[in-house]
What does this fold into?
Amino acid sequence: MAKKILIIDDDPEIISYLKDVFEEAGYDTVGAKNGVEGLEMAQVHKPDLITLDMDMPARGGTLFYVKLRQEPMLAEIPVIVISGVGPRPPVLTKNVPVLTKPVDTEKTLKLVKEMIGD
It folds into this structure.
């Protein structure tokens, strides 16, 4: 069974692009346009990994991350931040990689494979 990645980003083009990249690499994907929808999708789909934009309406990445870590069934899901915003938010632990936009496909896929395998 393919591993599942939840892509949370308010830019539909980024979601579409990352879905294509991850699905071509053999992963299943699901997308969410903000942190509220992202938390709902995480609860329903129990992804193996989450990619997270930080600057979004209706609950940005920081609040999503805090809520995710408070949910016992979701707290251990690995997160990769893919964002165009500045420095690492203090709420993110050191084991949360932060990649900047524009997305480096090769680097992103390498990191995903390191974190969850094929």
